[in-house]
């Protein structure tokens, strides 16, 4: 039976108000140098923070380039910019260089914005602010609903934004994504200030804005979904060859790699290592709709992997740049495993008390490295220095270093 207090509480919360149209209507898409110059002038003359968003075509096109950029600023209204027609937005980026940019999940959009010349010096990330403030659901729709009381229509989030011309319902959705972003920013700033967490957020935002471009992944083929099934080096070689040729084809065609060949098909071929095209065609993902020419390409990749010597096959695990996976610590170093268990418990308790996700309180990898190779004297200062080396911010060190140091000291063997 539902608790009467829960029923009363739910009845007291008004239903969210559907947000159906932008305040000034759907702006025309900026797709010419003249129109872009007008947008730059308008936004340079605007006031206050600028809301920024970008739409990509993940799952449809190769890479993560932006196919639509949305902005909104007081005094300038909303702009929708086509970065395919206007591929250089550096003038806009320069006009807004000293302005605070408000983004939701900034690390997702900043790389594709940088590609077209837009790099902020200051940001406010409403998703990260929501995490630090203790919200359970931090998607944009959930945040706008819970904080501002409006319901955003989210039906077009996964469409192919490379489509031209973009349909009007999609443009409406895109404009609404920045409609209330500054309002959300202001409400979250007030909430963080009330909780005593605003300085934490400001340090996080500064770190994101100052971060260098992400380095290319080492052995990106190892992220193939289903890799846990692949147990032999020669099978790994097949995954690597198929992934590499798939990536080349996807890049040339400008399509998502998964539309060229699925990860499941790559893993199936790696497990079977088919000796010929007929055997390959019988595997899942290499069915009747795939022509002989395509099958020949994939079989050639399998054959190349089969022909490699054992020495040239990839190692079973990636080259370690740090501690081994924690699941192996008990066998490799029981003392380190005990340190990690104690440190994790301390961080977990602290995160629960502060109502902050553990991964935002401190990077799990930083804690693992401290536990694997602890300071000779695990004082708060020594632990804090190690955390700083791994990129921890000042607020994180001030909160976490002492708790981790106590945990390490508690499990130290008696001399």
Task: Explain how this protein is built.
By secondary structure, the protein is an alpha/beta fold. It folds into three domains: 11-210, Nucleotidyltransferase, domain 5; 220-312, HRDC domain (DNA polymerase, domain 1); 326-410, DNA polymerase, domain 1, CATH 1.10.150.80. The chain is 52% helix and 9% strand. The chain contains 20 helices and eight strands. The protein has helices spanning 4-12, 33-45, 90-95, 106-115, 126-133, 140-148, 168-179, 181-195, 198-210, 233-253, 257-260, 263-272, 277-281, 292-307, 329-332, 334-354, 358-361, 364-372, 380-389, 394-410, and strands spanning 17-19, 29-30, 47-55, 68-74, 77-81, 100-103, 122-125, 150-152. The strands form two sheets. The protein has a six-stranded mixed beta sheet, with helices on both faces. A two-stranded parallel ribbon has the order 1-8. Strand 6 (100-103), helix 4 and strand 7 form a beta-alpha-beta unit. It is flat, with a radius of gyration of 26 Å. The model is unreliable at 1-10 (pLDDT under 50).
